[in-house]
Amino acid sequence: MAPEMRIGFLVLAAFLWTACAGKPDVVEPSAGGTTGGTTGATHRIFVTGHGWHTGIVVPAAAINRELPFLRQRFGDVPFYEFGWGDRGFYEAEDITLGLALQAVFWPTETVMHVVAVPGSPRRYFPNSDVVALSITGRQFAALRRFIANGFYRDDDAKTVAFRKGLYGDAQFYKGVGTYYLLNTCNTWTAKGLRSAGVDISPAFKLTAGSVLDSLPNR
Q1: Are strands 170-174 and 110-117 parallel, antiparallel or unpaired?
Q2: Per-residue pLDDT tens over the stretch 159-185
Q3: Within a 13 Å sphere around the CA of 106, how many CA atoms are in the beta-carbon half?
Q4: DSSP-assigned letter for residue 49
Q5: Are 204 and 210 in contact (CB under 8 A)?
Q6: Burial of residue 48, with CB atoms counted within 10 A of its CB: 0-12 exposed, 13-18 middle, 19 or more buried
């Protein structure tokens, strides 16, 4: 192999590795345990696409076991939508070019965005793409652990709440990891789906469309 080709392959390999390496990390289904159901049980989750951003909707009752502070904050609701992204860009009321460039090209602080979904996700998000997926109990446990790992915890193991969220009954929390060009909100969604056993690679999942087009029910 010519030296220039070898260098090209090394650069490509480094690019792909970086695209998947940012925290939070994928949780392998075998590491998720089976809490909340047997390995043969089927659980329904949803992937939402809101134009530039994607999220994951899961039944609230099961994930409340991992994240009890959510029930204290939102009460009894059937679903939560989770999203992860750049704090400045995500929380901003007015999106500017400077915020967009900073989010893309400089590693920045992240947040978890949690929305209480009071009923059918498709009815609650009528103007968004909503794709349903069925996963096993083991896969669901890994997905719950991946989502829980996205929340920053202080020295007392407590999460840090920021301002209210973007729509509905929602809340921002301090997140884990940094946001940059190859570790975006859509990369996070792809990692979550990978944790849930979906055949999707987080590499190059930089847009909502690239995530949604990879789903089996799309």
Answers
A1: antiparallel
A2: 999 999 989 999 999 999 988 777 888
A3: 10
A4: E
A5: yes
A6: buried
Our CA dihedral for 104, 151, 50, 63, rounded to 10 degrees, sits at 160
Mean pLDDT of the chain: 81
d(CA 42, CA 47): 16
Per 3-state DSSP, what percentage of the chain is helix, strand, and coil (rounded to 5)? 35, 25, 40
Structural contact between residues 132 and 216, judged by C-beta atoms closer than 8 angstroms: no
Does the predicted TM-score (pTM) go above 0.85? no
- Taking CA atoms, 23 is separated from 18, 81, 102, 180, 197, in Å, by 11, 20, 19, 11, 18
- The residues, any chain, with a CB within 8 Å of residue 122's CB and separated by 6 or more, are 46, 130
Question: What does the alpha-carbon distance between residue 64 and residue 80 come to, in Å, rounded to a whole number?
Answer: 10
Q: For residues 174 and 23, what is the distance between their CA atoms, to the nearest angstrom?
A: 13
- 7: confidence class by pLDDT, cuts 50, 70, 90: very low
The pLDDT value recorded for residue 218 is 64
